[in-house]
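Review form for a predicted model. The reviewer records the input and the model, then writes brief findings.
Reviewer: anonymous (R2)
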Amino acid sequence: MASAGLAAVGGPIQDITVAVLRQTELARVDVPAATRAMMAGSQLGLLAALLLAPALLAVLPLAGVMAVCGVAILGCGVVGLRRFG
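Model under review:
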């Protein structure tokens, strides 16, 4: 329960820092387009995950699906750091 509560704190805090970064680093006219692009990318990722979940759960146990998803998230982070870091 404590871990779930701690993990839930990351979402709103991350949203605030990304919003501030977007508003301070981009030209004022580009902020709405950047916000729309971020929202669209986030929703497309959610859609893809929801479409893939039944197929993954059919071939892997729940712990395996969680491990695969964790590795995928870690991989995205590493690629992002190498590309943009």
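Findings: The chain has a mean pLDDT of 88.
Further findings: Residues 2-84 form one domain.
Recommendation: see findings above.
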